[in-house]
Specification:
Strand content: under 5%
Structural class: mainly alpha
Radius of gyration: 22 Å
Order of helices and strands: HHHHHHHHHHHH
Distance between the termini: 78 Å
Number of strands: 0
Shape: globular
Length: 297
Amino acid sequence: MSSDDFGFPYLDRAGLAAARLAARPGRAVWLAFAAAMILAWGGIAMLALRAAEIRQPGAGLAGDGLLRHVAPGSMLSFLDSFVALCLTPAVAPGSGPAQFMVATAMWFLMAVAMMLPSAAPMIKTYCEIADTAAGKGETAVHPLVLVAGYLSVWLAASIGFAALDLAFRALFSAEPFAVASPFVAAVLLGIAGLYQFSALKEACLKKCRMPFPILFSRWSTRPAAIFRLGVDEGLWCFGCCWALMLVMFCVGVMNIFWMVLLALVAVVEKQMPGRLVGGLAGTILLVWAGALLFTAA
């Protein structure tokens, strides 16, 4: 009997696979991680495709022409209803809570798609520590508890962004996925650009770039403590990236091309030492804001 049998010589292949998955919780996390990413980006892509279909040709966003050529044929009825509710031009009487829930779900999909990749090193580090502890026969809280704590922060943030989104629509009588006016966009871009150079941004980046000392020093066998650790990691991630999410109001919420770009910025910024990437992004955002103010004057 090989060591891979985990002491279960009578299990079939499916049973051994389940044993391996239970013995190494990191694999379960990565499976869930991949599934979440596929579902998030799949939902985002369908929303972006439908948004490109309903926008007027003159008011289209960058890439709308390409998206119209790859528009999907038929979607499942429940997904089609979800997309239709997201894209409803006006809020029907009595549908405020439903609109708010849908907007929250939409922003949460964006957060999962854009921010989970940048959290991969932190999740991988915890999985390695958990695997080491399990190999020594020690109790280890499942890594999905850490991920749940992390995502709870972005769920709360999504509620805030959804409220801001609906307030933007109500105040400016804007259509869903509309681009902010030049002045409003300049203000949002200015805030995002200035934040890139702030001490708080740098402090949060340091926490995100070096997860091992934090995870190791705060190791616990209590699920509540690991969930709280995930919440703290999520807060540091939010501190790094919340300003970048404001850019979505300036380029059109659910603009999938900008989502990919901002997700790449978040990943690279957390992986590269120094402030080159953040400083470059901040400079671009500030120049962009200045250009919008100049043209709007």
